Amino acid sequence: MGLAVIGMIAGMALGFAGYFGGFGAFLLVAALGAVGFVVGRFLEGDLDVDEFFRTRDDRER
Predict the structure, then answer these.
(1) Backbone φ and ψ of 55, nearest 5°
(2) What pLDDT score does 54 carry?
(3) Using alpha carbons only, how large is the chain's radius of gyration in Å?
(4) What's the pTM value of the predicted model, to 2 decimals?
(5) pLDDT in tens, 27-60
(6) Which three-class secondary structure state does DSSP give residue 39?
(7) What residues contact 13, with CB distance under 8 A and at least 6 apart?
(8) I need a labelling partner for 45 at 20 to 30 A (CA). Which of 14, 22, 34, 36 fits?
């Protein structure tokens, strides 16, 4: 499944949440989608947890 299709599905989910559940549901779906995206990237190996906890001095080396 291409990124455009995934984006379309995510947009439709946000649209339905906003229409039927209001703005609060829209924000909840958007936040959970962002968390799911980060977890998915982590599980695929594209994201390293150490990147979030390094200091600036460690990044320069």
Answers:
(1) -85, 170
(2) 75
(3) 16
(4) 0.65
(5) 898 888 888 888 877 887 777 777 777 777 765 5
(6) helix
(7) 29, 33
(8) 14
